[in-house]
Automatic annotation (TrEMBL):
Pfam families to which the protein is assigned, alphabetical: Barstar (PF01337)
Protein name as catalogued: Barnase inhibitor
Domain called Barstar (barnase inhibitor): residue spans: 39-116
Family statement: Belongs to the barstar family.
The organism's taxonomic lineage, starting at the top: Bacteria, Bacillati, Actinomycetota, Actinomycetes, Propionibacteriales
Protein origin, superkingdom: Bacteria
Length: 141
């Protein structure tokens, strides 16, 4: 059993976490789905700015066509799509985006943290081996 399956079985609470030892996306997807969780991959390894990030979120989270591509719209859309079904979000390539647009990462983390508090749906796992200052306060899996 992978560490993710064990964490999910033990009742991993909604939140934003650093996961330095994250396996590949396929393994995370399989384990999440085996435990009855949805799965979303956010790979920002080629994303440089807010526009690219919001476009990625629109696709990855399957947001409606009317999604406004701004921070308020992202927060509202994530809240609107809350079905109560838990989801694992694997965020890879965060360091790349952080190096290009620190503010985008900062605001995105705030929105995800707010959504995990409000909906109780998301478990956002950041696959990052380094710990930039922005992530230092996040719990580690």
């Amino acid at each position: 059993m992978s560490s993710l399956r064990a964490l999910l079985e033990e009742g991993l609470r909604p939140g934003v976490y650093r996961w330095p030892a994250a396996p590949g996306a396929d393994a995370v997807r399989r384990d999440a789905m085996d435990e009855g969780f949805g799965f979303v991959l956010l790979d920002t390894g080629e994303i440089h700015d807010k526009t690219g990030f919001l476009d990625l979120c629109a696709t990855a989270f399957d947001l409606p066509r009317w999604f406004g591509r701004n921070w308020d719209a992202l927060a509202d859309s994530l809240s609107d799509r809350s079905t109560g079904a838990p989801e694992v979000v694997l965020w890879t390539g965060l360091r790349h985006l952080l190096d290009h647009d620190h503010d985008t990462v900062d605001v995105a983390l705030q929105i995800f943290a707010e959504d995990t508090t409000n909906s109780g749906q998301l478990r956002v796992l950041i696959a990052e081996t380094e710990t930039p200052d922005l992530l230092s306060s996040l719990p580690v899996l």
